[in-house]
Design goal:
Elements lengths: L6 H6 L3 H7 L43 H11 L4 E5 L2 H12 L5 E5 L4 H10 L6 E5 L4 H7 L4 E7 L11 H10 L3 E5 L4 H4 L9 E5 L13 E5 L2 H14 L5 H11 L2 H19 L5 E5 L9 H7 L6 E6 L2 H11 L4 E2 L9 E3 L20 E5 L5 H12 L3
Parallel strand pairs: 2-3, 2-4, 4-5, 5-6, 10-11
Antiparallel strand pairs: 1-7, 6-7, 8-9, 9-12, 11-12
Bound molecules: pyridoxal-5'-phosphate (PLP).
Pyridoxal-5'-phosphate binds next to helix 4 and helix 5.
GO biological process, one term: transsulfuration
Family: Belongs to the trans-sulfuration enzymes family.
Cofactor: pyridoxal 5'-phosphate
């Protein structure tokens, strides 16, 4: 039998997939199980009062399926500490409560994920937290939105659903100069395409429901940081507020991560094919994809991302009705919210994921359609959008 791998090895693994497949876990010494067992146990026997085995006491505090996932998430995001949550929104909620107090202020993207905007606008404002939306692709606008009481700059890049690109290194500097932390919601890029901590971000947030899980079969979230104090606050809130994933969720997420690199490569290949097809199509007024040379964020994206991702948005020349028709005519692309799974999805953000932004500064164009390009056969996907756009 080969020597046991240690966590120290993970730091020396250069290749993404080696870390994705091995970091955080080694074959069980007792049984040799090569995968993490699903420890369906809410409590753990103690050898005498306070005598915890391997640090486990109660499964809200820590669970032997969740712990390898957390170590793995840290490794694939090139961070020191990883924490897993019951959803991306639970991670978002934890991040805000760890970093902000009543009277504090944060800057958010003016095209933030709808759920992030809703939580801040409808819940946290009730607790005395103030926010200013600003364009992530405009460093000066973010700087201008900073106030003396700004404690957090919230960044998504690429953004959802407009695929604007923020310069992580430049915005980390802006945040730090203003005495704030930079958190990057890295859900759209995934840890394979972009590692914000290496560019100066303080925290990386994921909805692991999306690319990390990758199979549309589990909801989860993650926070990764090098900041020991923040990590302690995250752990305190995991235990104190309890928004943690169960062991089966942790297992599914770990299982998804193993294939993240191969899935992302295929997502990117297929997205590029579709972008090429949409560009110049008479029914398409505008293609939003950071891989396009004419995309305003292309240079920054090319610097900070490995490739440009599997999300493509288009604005249709025929307006809202054409957008709605396109969404209902595809056969392989399923009309559904969410993204990042192996199967292709299509949606109308204005009426679906971003309906809560209607009438606000964050409202999205009504002719906008968002595609989460899956890993099916690229030719079949092209044929599907081609027939769906016919006559629009
Ligand atoms: C889905 C999503 C979230 C929220 O995550 P859930 O797992 O659905 O709670 C946050 N940010 C982005 C960018 C998302 O796409």
């Amino acid at each position: 039998m080969s020597e046991q791998r240690s966590q120290a090895d993970a730091a020396s693994w250069q290749g993404f997939s080696t870390r994705a497949i091995h970091a955080g876990y080694e074959p069980d010494p007792q049984t040799g199980a090569v995968n993490v067992p699903i420890y369906a146990s809410s409590t753990f026997a103690q050898d005498g009062v306070g005598g915890m085995r391997d640090g486990f006491e109660y499964a809200r505090t820590g669970n032997p399926t969740r712990r390898p996932l957390e170590a793995n998430l840290a490794a694939i995001e090139a961070g020191a500490f990883g924490r897993a949550f019951g959803s991306g929104m639970a991670a978002t909620d934890t991040m805000i409560r760890a970093a902000l107090r009543p009277g504090d202020h944060l800057v958010i993207p003016n095209d933030a994920y709808g759920g992030t905007f809703r939580l801040i606008d409808k819940v946290f404002t009730q607790w005395g937290i103030e926010y200013t939306p600003a364009a992530v692709n405009d460093v000066d606008a973010i700087r201008a939105a900073m106030r003396p009481n700004t404690k957090l700059v919230w960044l998504e890049t690429p953004t959802n659903p407009l695929l604007n690109v923020g310069d992580i290194a430049a915005l980390a500097q802006v945040a730090h100069e203003g005495g704030a932390k930079l958190v990057v919601d890295n859900t759209f890029a995934s840890p394979y395409l972009q590692n914000p901590l290496t560019l100066g971000a303080d925290v990386v947030l994921h909805s692991t429901t999306k690319y990390i899980g990758g199979h549309s079969d589990v909801v989860g979230g993650a926070l990764v940081t090098d900041d020991e104090e923040l990590d302690a606050a995250f752990a305190f809130l995991q235990n104190g507020a309890g928004a943690v994933p169960g062991p089966f969720d942790a297992f599914l997420t770990l299982r998804g991560i193993k294939t993240l690199e191969v899935r992302m490569e295929r997502h990117c290949d297929n997205a590029e094919k579709l972008v090429q097809f949409f560009t110049g199509h008479p029914a398409v007024e505008k293609v939003l994809y950071p891989g396009l040379a004419e995309h305003p964020g292309h240079q920054v994206a090319a610097t900070q991302m490995r490739r440009f991702g599997g999300m493509v948005s288009v604005q249709l020349a025929g307006g809202k009705q054409a957008a709605l028709d396109f969404c209902s005519r595809t056969e392989i692309f399923t009309l559904a919210e969410s993204l990042g799974g192996v199967e292709s999805l299509i949606e109308h953000p204005g009426a679906m994921t971003h309906a809560s932004t209607a009438g606000s500064l964050l409202e999205v164009p009504e002719n906008l359609v968002r595609l989460s390009v899956g890993i099916e056969d690229g030719g079949d996907l092209l044929g599907d959008v081609e027939q769906a756009l016919e006559g629009l």
